[in-house]
Amino acid sequence: MRIPFLDLKRQYREIGSEVSRAVAGVLDGGSYILGAEVNSFEAEWANFCGVRAAATLNSGTDALILALIATGATREGAADEVILPALSSGYTALAVINAGGVPLFVDIDPRRYTIAPAAIEKAITSRTRAIVAVHLYGQMADMNAITEIASRHGLIVIEDAAQAHGASLNGKRAGAHGHAAAFSFYPTKNLGAYGDGGAVTSDDVELIEQIKILRQGGHVAAMQMSTAGRNSRMDEVQAAVLRVKLKHLMDWNRKRIELAQIYDDAFRGSRIETPFPVGGESHNFHLYVVQHPERERLRRYLFDREIETMIHYPFLLHQQPLFRKTGQQAAIPIAEHVARRIVSLPLYPQLSRNEVEEVAAEIMAFEN
Ligand SMILES: Cc1ncc(COP(=O)(O)O)c(C=O)c1O
After folding, report:
1. Which of the residues 45, 144, 194, 231 has an alpha carbon 20 to 30 A from that of 350?
2. Cβ atoms within 10 Å, residue 153
3. Is the pLDDT of residue 25 over 90?
């Protein structure tokens, strides 16, 4: 049986009629950008994350860029340093550069795969202004330690929550831990639109108002431009889709956790290193990433049996030519070790238990 890494058509079939009604309502309503659906989704998303306000944007990358700019983490022309993990999506680092900052890459925690607090502490210089904490694969970063370091050094904390919709730590959801948080609603995310989309969440209502100005040309009033903003608006169709899907998000996350448990049980006692959820809903299993000493041979074996896998990510950020020339770079041994061994297995709410069991059985057959 062919098992695709991700099949979004299955999700659409599950909620297609609800989505069609919502989209038809928008098309019929005649308001297509920044209208009632966007306003409602912003209120619902802020409420879901447990913060006072949210601003929707065109993408997760724009959400990071505008969060960095609006919090003052990266000031124009100042070459402010921003600490971030070496293992993340390339967009995390691109956002820092596009916001005018200098990325400083540091190592990861070997079990959570998220930024290592001790490595942050070591990397801080007099030019450091902010930390971007990425909740990688859906696992919450160690926000207690990170916010403690940040407050001791007077640093701004931005959460990159692009993969962490609905994950929580100490009873607080992703999006409610830093000064601001950036979400992506790219279609493959746990909460994904049918196109691009993103949002910034924060308890700082003024900050969110500032981002709403920046997303629309920097206009403070009609025909009055005071800041160099951009065009990063969410359209009504995407907001309507996201409102439908938000109702399903936590059921889908629970399904992911159940499927992850099947993999965990099957791999117990083997040489496959499974993810290490810190507990409760601290991991939403956006991705199920294992480590294997013979990753390439395992991937080829699964590929030959029509089981698709991926690598998140095939390169570390500090090794990219674009980022190598920025800032000073200390060694990053844990991320370098992990990067040679990680492989992402199929896991999404519409995957059946049978399919997950088959993937696990094939992997165990490879092992024996
Ligand atoms: C960790 C992380 N940060 C940032 C982004 C950028 O989000 P977007 O693709 O919506 O710009 C993504 C997704 O691509 C991501 O996974």
Report:
1. 45
2. 13
3. yes
Report the distance separating Cα 201 and Cα 49, nearest Å. 8
**CA 92 to ligand 1 centroid distance, Å:** 7
Report residues whose beta carbon is within 6 angstroms of any ligand 1 atom: 59-61, 88-89, 91-92, 134, 160, 162-163, 184, 186, 196, 198
Cα 103 to the center of its chain, rounded Å = 18
Do residues 341 and 291 make contact, with C-beta atoms less than 8 angstroms apart? yes
Domains of the chain from N-terminus onward = 8-243 (3.40.640.10), 249-367 (3.90.1150.10)
> Which atom of ligand 1 has the smallest separation from the CA of 88?
1
- Torsion angle, alpha carbons of 121, 122, 126, 129, to 10: -40
Tell me the pLDDT tens digit for each residue of 208-258.
Answer: 999 999 999 887 776 677 777 899 999 999 999 999 999 999 999 999 999
Helices (H) then strands (E): counts for the chain: 12, 13
At 88-103, the pLDDT tens digits run 999 999 999 999 999 9
Ligand 1 atom nearest residue 186's Cα? 10
| Separation between Cα atoms, residue 167 and residue 185, nearest integer Å | 15
